[in-house]
Each structure stands twice: as structure tokens, then as C-alpha cells.
């Protein structure tokens, strides 16, 4: 009788611990984490080959952290990421949380444009629940592949109640980054991501999550960028400034009907006289022009060497050009008023 009672108690404890496990859904989009090479010691590989079910098999112990299910949203190298896939992700995330299907969401993604997807979702998700992106620098077939560890850490972060209300996060090489500030800072190393202006928010190590700071500018239920009924975004291009640059890209964006242009300027969002004249012309034709910088960190400030009032330009604050493009595309779905658009850059 005593043995039967003990068995019942053990069974009850097991069942209740399974029931209490947080539910995490993994939305897979491809990237090197799902990459396959011909052999373990060769660099050549193709991104976006391995399905999510196989990736999960390579992560021992992951099932102890959470009850995990996987969905394949796309399977591309993130150099081929599209706005359509962003829309699909946005829709599915909102649906998952509206239907209470999960307690946390992880997105596996190539590293090349991961910072862009993180920021897009940071601006558009109407949730306070965790959304965490991750990927890898080495394909799944490589020696010391970093994908399994990053996936384990990302699920740990997504399953942690501490991650709620922090906006969209990116977990890589044991660091937890804010989706707005994070950027890819190295082309090949496993420590590929950094947060150039503010540093990481926290760390994940040995199945434990520690936060040290919180981002102020993050996604939440009040985001003005509701894209529920939106099927495409206004076209915004990026023109790169360098010594003796020709404004051919600016002129062609205008000719092709682009609604906005981001200048990847030098220094504090500066450009030469040829760019200045082309920008003035573009603004006269109704195109919105934002000054950003390709320096890699720091703010672009108003009325410095460029008189934004006279020229009619907007500044990106500390958003790099590729992130400034996302905010301008979304901003233009709401307004074309220059002051309003500038206020978005000081708020989001
Ligand atoms: N080109 C790959 C991608 O972005 C690189 C990676 O995932 O690390 O999908």
C-alpha cells in the first residue's frame, strides 16, 4: 500500500511539473542555424536547409525548460529576408498571444538581417510577452556549431517571466540584447552581435537569466504602428555617403517613386555639396529624407553642421541606417508630416 501511495505521489509531481512548464513556440525562418555544409571542417555551406524539428533534436535538455513546438514560417538565408516574411511573423505572433497558445516565442533567423527583423517586430508587436530572436554563425554541420547553444539560451530567455515587458529581444553568445540597439558587428565570429550605444540588457548562462538594465524604447500594446490591415510598406531606400560621392542613388530613388530616403552619412550624418543639392531637390518633390550615419555608434544630432530646418531633413537619433529605414517605412504608413515623423525618431 505504501509503495502504491509513493508511486501515486511521484506520478502527481511529474504530471504537475509537466503541466507547469512554460509553453514556447519556435518560429523558424532559416539562416545559418539551419545551414548545412558538405563537411564539418569546411566553411562553404547553404543557409536555410535544416527544418526546425531536426534543429531541436541537436539541443539536449531543451525539453526540460519548456514544452516546445516548432513552426516553419520560411527557410531562407536572411540576406533574402522580405517585408512579406516580416508581415507573416507579425501576424502569427499576434495570433499566438491573442489565442494564448504560448508563454514565449523564439524566432530562429539568419544573422545578416536579424537586427532588422528584431527592430521591425519591436515596433509592431502588440504584446508584453517575450519574443526572442536567435541564430548562429556556424552551420549545424560545423565543428562547434553555435546554433544549439544559442537556441537553448533563447528558449531559456523566452520561457523566463523576467523577460516579459522588455520588448523584442535578441539572444546570442550568452548575451541578451534589446531589439532596437542590437547590431551585427562581426562578419564571421561567434560573438557577432553587440549593442553599440547602450550595451546588452543581460546575460543567460547555465539555464539562468540575469537582467541588468531595461530598454525604454520598446514594443508594447500602445505601439502606433498597427500593421494589421497593411499589405505593403512605402518604399524607402538608403544612400551611402563617402568621400567625393555622387548622388546617383538619391536621384534614382526619387525617379523610381520612393517615398523616403535614408542618408548613411559620414560622421554626424554629414554629406557633401552634391548630396546636399540632390537632397534639397528630393525634399522639394515630397520625398522624406532622414540623416543617419554609417559610423556604427552615436547619435545624429539636429542643426549641427547641417541646418535641418532650412534643408527640411529629419535626424535618425541613434538608429543606424538600416533601422532608420524600418522606422521611416512604418512612420510613413501613419503620416507624411515632417515634425510628426521626427518625433517618432525621438520616441521609438
Ligand atoms: N547569410 C546567413 C544568413 O543571414 C548568415 C547567418 O545566418 O549567420 O542567413
UniProtKB/TrEMBL annotation:
Asparaginase/glutaminase C-terminal domain span: 235-345
CDD domains noted in UniProt: L-asparaginase_II (cd08964)
Keyword Phosphoprotein among UniProt keywords: no
Active site: 32
GO molecular function: asparaginase activity
SMART domains in the record: Asparaginase (SM00870)
Keywords for this protein: Hydrolase
Residue stretches making up the L-asparaginase N-terminal domain: 23-215
Domain of life: Bacteria
Residues that coordinate or bind substrate: 78, 111-112
InterPro entries named in the record: AsnASE_II, Asp/glu_Ase-like_sf, Asparaginase/glutaminase-like, Asparaginase/glutaminase_AS1, Asparaginase_C, L-asparaginase_C, L-asparaginase_N, L-asparaginase_N_sf
One GO biological process term: asparagine metabolic process
Similarity annotation: Belongs to the asparaginase 1 family.
PANTHER family: 60 KDA LYSOPHOSPHOLIPASE, L-ASPARAGINASE
Name of the protein this chain belongs to: L-asparaginase
Species the sequence originates in: Chitinophaga ginsengisegetis
Amino acid at each position: 500500500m505504501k509503495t502504491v501511495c509513493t508511486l501515486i505521489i511521484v506520478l502527481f509531481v511529474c504530471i504537475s511539473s509537466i503541466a507547469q512548464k512554460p509553453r514556447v513556440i519556435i518560429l523558424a525562418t532559416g539562416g545559418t542555424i539551419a545551414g548545412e555544409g558538405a563537411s564539418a571542417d569546411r566553411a562553404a555551406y547553404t543557409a536555410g536547409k535544416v527544418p526546425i524539428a531536426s534543429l531541436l533534436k541537436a539541443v539536449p535538455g531543451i525539453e526540460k525548460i519548456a514544452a516546445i513546438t516548432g513552426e516553419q514560417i520560411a527557410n531562407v538565408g536572411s540576406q533574402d529576408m522580405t517585408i512579406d516574411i516580416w508581415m507573416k511573423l507579425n501576424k502569427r505572433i499576434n495570433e499566438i498571444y491573442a489565442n494564448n497558445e504560448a508563454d514565449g516565442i523564439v524566432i530562429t533567423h539568419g544573422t545578416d538581417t536579424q537586427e532588422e527583423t528584431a527592430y521591425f517586430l519591436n515596433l509592431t508587436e502588440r504584446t508584453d510577452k517575450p519574443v526572442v530572436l536567435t541564430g548562429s554563425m556556424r552551420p549545424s554541420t560545423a565543428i562547434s556549431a553555435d546554433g544549439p547553444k544559442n537556441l537553448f539560451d533563447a528558449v531559456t530567455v523566452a520561457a523566463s517571466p523576467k523577460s516579459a515587458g522588455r520588448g523584442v529581444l535578441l539572444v546570442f553568445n550568452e548575451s541578451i540584447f534589446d531589439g532596437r540597439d542590437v547590431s551585427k558587428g562581426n562578419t564571421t565570429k561567434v560573438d557577432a552581435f553587440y549593442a553599440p550605444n547602450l550595451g546588452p540588457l543581460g546575460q543567460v548562462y547555465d539555464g539562468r537569466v540575469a537582467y541588468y538594465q531595461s530598454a525604454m524604447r520598446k514594443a508594447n500594446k500602445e505601439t502606433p504602428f498597427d500593421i494589421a490591415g497593411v499589405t505593403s510598406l512605402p518604399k524607402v531606400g538608403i544612400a551611402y555617403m563617402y568621400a567625393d560621392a555622387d548622388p546617383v542613388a538619391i536621384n534614382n530613388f526619387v525617379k523610381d517613386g520612393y517615398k523616403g530616403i535614408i542618408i548613411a552619412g559620414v560622421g554626424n550624418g554629414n554629406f557633401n555639396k552634391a548630396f546636399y543639392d540632390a537632397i534639397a531637390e528630393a525634399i522639394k518633390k515630397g520625398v522624406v529624407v532622414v540623416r543617419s550615419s554609417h559610423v556604427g555608434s552615436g547619435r545624429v544630432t539636429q542643426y549641427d553642421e547641417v541646418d535641418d530646418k532650412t534643408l527640411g531633413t529629419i535626424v535618425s537619433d541613434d538608429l543606424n541606417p538600416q533601422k532608420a529605414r524600418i522606422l521611416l517605412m512604418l512612420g510613413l504608413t501613419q503620416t507624411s508630416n515632417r515634425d510628426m515623423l521626427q518625433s517618432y525618431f525621438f520616441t521609438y
